[in-house]
Amino acid sequence: MSESTLFVRLVVGLLLIATGVHGSCPIELSPPRVVVKYGGRVSVNCTTSESQYRGIGWEASQNGTGVQQVNPLPWTVESLTDWDITTFCFLNLYPKEQCLKTLDVVLYKFPETINISSSDGVLKEGEKSNFTCDILNIAPVQNLIVRWYKRDAIISTQHYRNINSKKPVNQSSVYSFTPTRQDNGATFRCEASMDLGPEGPQLIVTSQENNITVFFVPEILCSVIELLEEETLANKCSVTGNPTPDIRWLKDGQPFNWTVPLRRESAGMYSIEAKGFSSAQKDIRVLVLYGPKLTCPSSYITLENTPHNLTCTVEGFPEPEMIWYKDGGEVELPENLTRSDGGQYLITASNVLSSVNATVDIIVLYPPSPIVELDDTEVDVGSTVSLKCSSTGNPRPKYSWSYYKMANVVEKNEDGVSRLVIGNATAYNMGSYTCHAWNSKGSVSKMAKVTVTGAKQECPIKITPDTMVMPYRSKSQPVTCTSTSTNSSNVIGIYWQAGRNSTVWFPNTHEDWDARPVCTGTFRGRGKCDKPLNFILYKTPDIVSLRGVNDSSSVVEGREFQLQCDVLNVSPVQNLSVRWYRGNTTIEPGSMRLTGCHPENNSNCDISAIRSPVNVSSTVIVTLDRKDNGAEFRCEAQLDLGHEGPQPSPTTSTPLNITVFYKPIINTTKLPKAIPVFRGYPEQLDCEADGHPPPKIQWLYSSGKTTSLSEGKLVVFEAGLYNCTATNDVDSATYVVHVVLKEDYLPLIAGFVAVIVVAISIIFLFIYSIYYKNTKMRRYSLKNPKLSTHNGNVAHNGWDLPLPMTKLSYGLIACIGSTMSASCPAKVNPPRIVVRFGDSFSANCTSSLTSPITGMGWESTTGGTGTVSGVTYLPLNSNPVDDWDISSSCFLNLPDDRQCTIHLPVTVYKMPQSVSMSQISSEVGPMVEGRQYHFQCGVDDVAPASSLVVYWHKGNETFPNETFVESRLSPVSKSSVLALTAHRSDNGTQIWCEAKLNLLPGQQNPAAMSSKSQEVIVHYPPTFLKPANETLELPAHASLALDCMAKGNPMPEYSWLLPHPAQETNKNQHVDQPILTLSFQLPGVYTCIASNTQGTSTKVFTVVGAARDRTTMAVIFGVFVPLGILLFVGGLVFMTPDGTFSLNKGNYLPGQPTSSGPFPAELPRLFKLEFFSLSTLNRRLSTENNMGNNFLRWIVVLCMFCSVSGEGCSLILKPSRVVVGFGEAVSVSCEAARPVRVLGWESAISATHTQEDRSVQWKVDSLIDWIEEPICYGVFFTAPRQCEEKLNLVLYKTPDSVSIRQVNHTGPMVEGKEYQLLCEVQNIAPVQYLTLRWYRAQTEVYNHSFSDLTSSSPVQVSSILVITPTKAENGAQYRCVAELELGPEGPQPPPSVTSEPLNASVYFPPTFLSPETEVMDFIEGAEMTLNCTATGNPIPVYSWQSSSPMPERMEDEAVVTSSSLHPGTYTCTASNTLEKKSKQFIVKEKTKGI
What we know:
Elements: H1 3-19, E1 27-30, E2 33-37, E3 42-48, E4 55-60, E5 66-68, E6 73-77, E7 87-93, E8 97-108, E9 115-118, E10 123-124, E11 129-138, E12 144-150, E13 153-159, E14 169-177, E15 187-195, E16 202-206, E17 210-211, E18 214-220, E19 224-228, E20 239-242, E21 246-251, E22 254-255, E23 268-275, E24 279-295, E25 299-303, E26 313-317, E27 321-326, E28 329-331, E29 343-350, E30 355-365, E31 377-380, E32 385-390, E33 398-402, E34 409-414, E35 417-422, E36 431-439, E37 442-453, E38 461-464, E39 467-471, E40 479-483, E41 491-496, E42 504-505, E43 518-523, E44 527-532, E45 534-538, E46 543-548, E47 554-556, E48 560-570, E49 576-582, E50 585-587, E51 591-594, E52 614-623, E53 632-639, E54 651-652, E55 656-657, E56 659-666, E57 674-678, E58 683-686, E59 689-692, E60 696-700, E61 707-710, E62 713-716, E63 720-727, E64 732-742, H2 746-775, E65 819-820, E66 826-829, E67 833-836, E68 842-847, E69 855-860, E70 866-868, E71 873-877, E72 888-893, E73 899-904, E74 906-909, E75 914-919, E76 927-928, E77 932-942, E78 948-954, ...
Parallel strand pairs: 2-8, 10-18, 19-24, 25-30, 31-37, 39-45, 47-56, 57-64, 67-74, 76-85, 86-92, 94-101, 103-111, 112-118
Antiparallel strand pairs: 1-3, 3-6, 4-5, 4-7, 7-8, 9-11, 11-14, 12-13, 12-15, 15-16, 15-17, 18-20, 21-22, 21-23, 23-24, 24-26, 27-28, 27-29, 29-30, 32-35, 33-36, 34-35, 36-37, 38-40, 40-42, 41-43, 43-44, 46-48, 48-52, 49-50, 49-53, 51-52, 53-54, 53-55, 56-59, 58-62, 60-63, 61-62, 63-64, 65-66, ...
Helix pairs in contact: 2-4
């Protein structure tokens, strides 16, 4: 085939492909792409999936096949050499179509070597140079990649994708490069590779390496040179350059021989010159180092606090550091020296080369220092005390004392210290003691106070007499004051303050009400002191009277009543006490105040500050009940003048009688809650009430009722609610009686019994007639069998055997007996002591040996006796106990030189200071049912706490007690927490806690202490007293009461939803009472709604029409039953033996029916009514049994009349259950399955009805009524009463918020402790479908369901999760999810709201990654690592301790890496706020082998 033909076909094929002819050519090439080396072999298969085609072939410039019928068709070339080859496979289809696919052929050629060359031989720093890489005879060049390498790093990559050539070419790659001195000696190379795709080989070839040489200018690498004296400049400064430069040193511009040793004077500026590739010069500072030289005086004297001129000079380079030392410590000499600066100093001067030192003695002169060791002192009476006066000064100071001179005080001076010794101290040694110290530079003084314990500090003044109590207007007497000291030098002066420096004072008994005479004395060493005279001028009250505040003598029960006792003209009032009495019973005294005193007018109302006669009043507040009516009260005033004065008789008021008014209480024992009344019979309601004033009785009931009222007694004839109200001036009481109308069913019952009797008689007569005929009237007698006398033996079970019985005596065994040790012949009585702190105790120890002992005794921390000889009985009498841990033992010294001991346990206790109960502050207020609350009982200052038991009481219920583990015996404070889940039964109960010391289990212990009780108030949603829905019948001619009473806290409020007809009738009446009385005869559905702040409850009353009156039926039965009885009796009289009736029964012959009598022969046929076809039964019965046949027919007919058929309710709701969101639209259809008279919806919203259709729709555009309960009702033509279907409606609302927080805790948690997390859900409904799920991260850890709650309106609920965090939970996130699971009719997935996450920060103590002790071998100079890393929160802080020197900055590092460690033990401590933990590292010196 020619090339032109091949080209035409190729163009045509491409056009066909471009125009979309047979766009999907059914040809497959395998492989679709080939990569072939020049001259290599290639083979490709062409395959078609088409079954009907005209031919297939290959078109190629080399080895084309033409059209063939082969499938697959191969194309093979043994040596491919055509660089421009184009090859495709074509397919001829019917009728005249052709499609083709082109084969991708890549023909390549790759060199075996490549060359690299440089443009220059030697490179110069900073000048640009080129490298060339030659790649010869390569194809296709667009697949070529050239990479350049410096050393082994790629520095450039070049591609040739933009060259489109299939034939071999020669390609060069050029890399431009600017060298630096760091590139000197570097190697360069290039690498060529071809990327022929996944079908081709990976071809790579690399050039040889090219080393380069870079010339660069000299560089001088120093600027400052340090060297020691006698050293040269040789090799002290480095110079670099290529080629290597020549250097020369210059100083002051002149060449310098750098091999000459330098002196300290040679230091200065030098220059260095370097010549190589180019020239360079640089100035260098040369420093010459030498050691220090120190000059100081040997001693120095100065005055304290004056500037000094002490100087020391030092020379050296580097400049030496001069340091002053005193007493081994580094000091800094201040500008002004003080006494503490005196002494010998060591001065050191040092630099990096050496160190020198010198000593200086500094002498500081100063006055005496402030006196020390003289402090206020306490000494017991009769003991000795020493006062020490010490002062330092230069020169040494001298001492003198000033004090109250006594014979038992001695002064001693020795070794620069003065002592004052007080022997056998008395009260007169109490006072101030002043010590004086002085030298040539000054003086100081100090005073100390001496207190004598056990002695009352007295002013040395004697008053005669020391106490004077005188009545008003009595005769005056003199009082004198003198000094008790016999040493006149101690007394400076003494006088009465009110006596004009006189030592005698006379009181005025007419005016000196407020006299406070004081004798004043001034004593040497004691100063001024006063001694008052206890003087009282008194006056008894003129009168004592009692009255009610506001002059009232009556009070209402339960209210507070205040009584006032007035005491006139009495003094001194602070000695007055007022006692109160109710009858002969003492009342807790009240407050007392001055009559007419008003603090707001700046009056002096302080009773303790007034001593003149005044009028006072005492008030007491009492709460009285009805039992206190007519009670007698009185008050009594008494002056208590102490044991020194007279005791005046008390003054008593006139008694006051109190009248108590109280509200009525109705006697419910005579008036039941519900009373039945039979129609036509009256019933008397007797309402009695107790109250003061006597209450008035009034009856309330619906108008139109027939009643009779007389003296509170109401006679009623009709059913209904009758309200008895008892009223007086205090209050009123109401009691509702429900009178229930009962029908008199006695006639109906009598008629029913008669019918039963007739039926039984007829059946008996039928059976008897057959029996009589079959037995020919034979008679049978039934004889009663005799009972055989029981003569069996009675088996004795042992109950009647006279067994001996031991009488047991019961009693309480007290643990107060004696204890005797098996190894020690002694006993201690009592064996155990329990004593209150501050009390004393006693015990007896008795020897049980008959032979004498050498001695016995008590060893005790209180009251020990030591060894006592010649006794066998020894008591232990303790001092008042002032220690909490007492050890007491009785010991016996036996004749064989042995000693035995028996221990007496002693328990010291202290009752609590107080017991208090409080509610957790965040939970204060009324409780809500279902929530958990916490109460805390605090027991303060109790010992021993290990015997403490805390009991919790709630009403009559006692919770499990709590005990405490406490090792301390001294008083501590403890607390107990009670978790209480509120319930409505708890409302109104009292809760308190009780603390008790269980010191002697099973015996009498100290009385328990209780906290104040707290009343529990629980709020809970309403609950109906009768919770079930009710169906009631409207009574005939009477009203109907619907009782919707509910119990709740707060008190529920009521509302009613009435049927539509009732709404129209009652639209002007507001119905908000719990009892709805229907005075109208309207059946339907009545819905009562009781609600409070905690929830809403709904109750449905279905009221139906009145039942049928059975009186008519009773009359019918009453008439026809006697007629039936008459027929039965006639049958017995006139029935013949063959079962027929005859009036001539006595002439009856069998087989010969009579024709006589008043009845014609045809009459019996009248009774043969063919109601049923009983042919089969007639064939079985003979003609003699026709009477029985007739009776069966009547029974069947009676059953037919008694049967009643009915039909069920046929209402269908679509859908039957609806779940709707708050505010969303809802629509429900109600359909009747059979004809209906009326069909409608009963609802507070969108109520509707129809009388035409069998379907009615209830539709609300936005439902927001939480108590909506729509009911579909229907009245059918075939049913006597209304039929109803209630819609199962669920109105839901997702919560406004869901939050999570910690309970009673803020901040980080601590590992291992228990915490509570609280999840609060706000405003969600209905709560019974709520599930609270707790998550830690993504794991659910707890869920809480509220299915036991019944509220349909939005409420607030909470859930508590108790956790004990671990370190693994640090940083964990807790969250709670509120999910409403509303069933399949609700939204899917269920709606949920998630709280914000709570990040848990958990504190835990440090934990080492490797806690074991590590032992390491010491290798000198080797680097060692001590890893003390620990985890903890807060992050641990590290500290190190070692027996060997430690490197710097080791103290606060967790990981220490150092080569300067020494053998020894290194202890690392990791600590945070919770705990400290330590780890040891032992570094051992490695043992050298032999």
